């Protein structure tokens, strides 16, 4: 039904009935990004769309733009800095005070590739923002997600991973706990974080025992603000992803997509009812594609170890 060129609007039209009336929380919704595109596409159908950002000015720009684009949409901004565990706890407390439950959580926010940098909590920036922060946030608001469960509906948690997870060797648990500048590269940290997204989606599905379905996905290669970040430039150039002028390298061994084509897979993971039969699966091009997951990112033993270490590092029990 869907292809690599399917757009977010096409997926939303197909699953309009499934989106109708849902409360959806999307992290990382700066304009010119996948989260914003996802929010904009579902805003005319959903009951409530909660958008997040760590920068209050950019969050306001996104909020105002969404309300302008979809008058009457119920948009609620939430300040969420995933690089700070205290900030995550504060944002989660705000969500837990909402009167509404959360039908779908889309963990989309990610740090740009960057030089070695530690967060306030002493973790590496990318692994903190892309994995530990979302892990804690999801753990803390899981009662709100579980509250969405009915006899006919299972709530979902979606992790926006990347096909580049396969470029690395998987999550290094030692480096997650003890960041090592001597062995650090921006791309290596990114691939570890994206592997972690896949592993956690599988482990969350297993531990939830049918109460929550989690999915991970690759949106594809897209020229978003993530790719255009100045801190990522050298790393992306080195790997032949962009050209010297900062444009997509059309000779790279993968196709480039539009933002709408990338967001299509996020929407499929969040709303395609056929995926109820495939909890924990990985999607590409808006359809299930577990065959594309590297062995190091589908190992249930590693998933369990990563979960338990993450609980210890963020000092929170999850489920």
Automatic annotation (TrEMBL):
Taxonomic superkingdom: Eukaryota
Pfam families hit by this protein: adh_short
Gene3D superfamilies tied to this protein: NAD(P)-binding Rossmann-like Domain
A molecular function (GO) term: oxidoreductase activity
Keywords from the named record: Oxidoreductase
Entry similarity comment: Belongs to the short-chain dehydrogenases/reductases (SDR) family.
PANTHER family per record: RETINOL DEHYDROGENASE, RETINOL DEHYDROGENASE 11
Designated name of the protein: NAD(P)-binding protein
Organism listed in the record: Mycena sanguinolenta
